[in-house]
Amino acid sequence: MTTVLDAAERTTGGLTSVEAARRLRENGPNVLPAGGGAHPVVLLLKQFAHFFAILLWVAAALAYVAGMPALSVAIALVVVLNGGFAFAQEYRADRAAQRLRDLMPTRATVRRDGKPLVVDAAELVVGDEVLLQGGDRVCADARVAQVAALAVDESMLSGESVPVHPAADDAVRAGTYVTEGEAAVVVTATGSRTQLAGIASLTRHAVRPTSPLALRLHRVVTVVGLIAVAVGVAFYGVAMLLGLDPTQGFLFAVGVTVALVPEGLLPTVTLSLARAAQTMAHRNALVRRLDAVETLGATTFICTDKTGTLTRNEMSAVQVWTPNGEVSVQGQGYAPTARVTGEPDALAAVRTLAISAVRCSPTAHVDHRDDRWLPVGDPMEVALHVLAARVVADTATPAATRFPFDPRRRRSSVVDGDGVHVTGAPDAVLPLCAPAPGAHEAIDALGAQGLRVLAVARRPGTATGWQDAERDLVLLGLVALQDPPRDDVTDSIALCRKAGIKLAMVTGDHPATARAIADQVGLLGPDRLVVEGKDLPADDATLGELLDHDGVVVARVTPEDKLRIAHALQHRGHVVAMTGDGVNDGPALRAADIGVAMGASGTDVAREAADLVLLDDHFGTIVGAVELGRATFANIRRFLTYHLTDNVAELTPFVFWALSGGSYPLALSVLQVLALDIGTDLLPALALGAENPNPRTMIGPARAGSLIDRSVLVRAFGVLGPAEALAAMAAFTLVLLAGGWDLGDPVLLATASGTAFTAIVLGQLANAFACRSATTPVKTLLGNRLLIGAVIFELAVLAVFLFVPPLPDLLGGSAPTPLGWVLAAMTIPAVLLVDAGHKWMRRRLA
After folding, report:
1. How many structural domains comprise the chain?
2. C-alpha distances in Å from residue 760, one per residue of 224, 251, 730, 756, 795
3. I need a labelling partner for 455 at 20 to 30 A (CA). Which of 178, 249, 695, 715 fits?
């Protein structure tokens, strides 16, 4: 770095050690502020203090008071396991801001007392002169004092996919990465005053919205909990009216209340979401928060990045114009099989052009491995090497004098034994060349397609400086570069629109590039609205109104812009999915309903802030995850219907007992009800939570209503529940009648109770298959192998409850008689026939 160091010494010489120490004491170390998130103990306690957890704690306490310690322990264990799992998920997610600190380098080279010195990056102060070269991480906000061919990757802050080339007096930001060149920069801000710290603050303070699933489950649990308490109080009143001892009446009411609390709901929901998350992981979508699974299904607006998500993140030459003709590349990216087509004279001209272009790009190359080309270096320079390989041009880079790219010249040049080679922006290269008919028209045509155009020129001879080299040139041609769209992204976008999901491209790239890609993949809406971040309305309501249209493109956005966009769309009632890969995306990813980070190319910060990580950076993976999320919502409604149907059958015996004034015996004991909830119902409910998406899943908007709506209530309380309950009560009554209705015979009562218990279990077996669809008959719904296995397990558990001592005596029901088995088995056709009739009527009335 002799040139830069010498120039820097002539300008400032850096600070003295004494002055640097004084400023360090005054302003503090150059470190990002520690995250201000909640203490882990507080996060853990929150998982045990939400409404559902409190309801289950109360149920556990009441079960203990009622003399059922085993049940009390089981309920408490459910709360602890679910709370611990949720804590682990949230704790990991809340470390996003902390990961920003890892982007600050630990060491830096500065000039102190006129000499280069390596110091801890934390000791940097404003005014320090820092020496940078390729491979360094910028450790503070700074102003460029001296520069030589500096290239900086700012994508993590700006979202811009192309490296920038700061000139003297330009700013460089902490956390960015020097890809090429060297510079001496003067520190202007450290620690909490840097732009990186500002983004950390945004990420830390962005409020993660409550998921739709959490809101819906809260409503469900609130309603069910209030009903359970109300029923318990009512039965206590009935017990008192019947003259029961107050203590016995209280314990009876407590048992009924505990029985009606949905102990199995929380583990069923958690395990169903976990299985869906596992399925998504197999499809390259890693879920970091379980409730994000269902939130994905509720998504109504996707704000997607461009580079790497809609595109392949592989810069490639797609067209080449030369004075001898044009050449097209068929097959893009880094695939060796791509074909280059054109007339022989044009192909020969492209080979000459490619040689000069490669000479000007000596720091990049491609490695050939396992029939793949692996890029190394600046993406644009890699694209030139790939072009040379495709046209079989010489890619050797002999010893040469290089005049690197400069942002003021906007071109670079190389002098070697074959002459002078120059590449750069067309408007910076063409004025140095002899007239080339058709070149300006070609530039306009290629630029209108949103392609990045590079001019390549050369001349024979030698030169001693760039002023001498970059003159009297001959234009070899124009290379049009593009990061091509992914192959199936157009189909994925069409599927989103079929599903009623609006789309917007939100990117840091140039508006023309963003528009071209959006148009090419079919994302750009009919009004063709493209707006830059600097032109967004200051008022959030106006911003929401502007963006609440399908196919909007927002270019050159800042982190604050993305955050405002997420909030503005949420205020208009949208469930927003926001994609991102850089540090700059952290705040918006955290604030969106679904933050989607890139796993292959994204930063740790983005991944930690997100709810979903795409392992393949593919937009189509988002769409697949949305489909699974919608299927999960439908599955939750399935097993809620299943659970509620069982609750109707469980409560009916108590209703019969109360309405008869105690003269009609209880068909079920409280422990039998709990055995149904936790013992026999759990696995079939989980199997219903594993149903695959049906062909209609992505047709029309996502369901925006409650988990328990009129349809669920009618099926559970008006169709399936009554059928199952009446069949079980009929079996109970007929067994008592066959035994002479001797209510003083404990054996007869136990047999009748066991028959009712068996009838409900078998009815739930039929109910499980009926709940697979709200419209389709059972005969066409035999494709869920998990459900078949769960039903077999359910029958095995039933046998244990009926035949394995001391469980029959403990539960209060013994094995049915042969007549009882027949009567219990009749519950299966009763449930299926009633369900089929209801579905037939719905189809007729539809």
Report:
1. 4
2. 21, 24, 11, 6, 12
3. 178
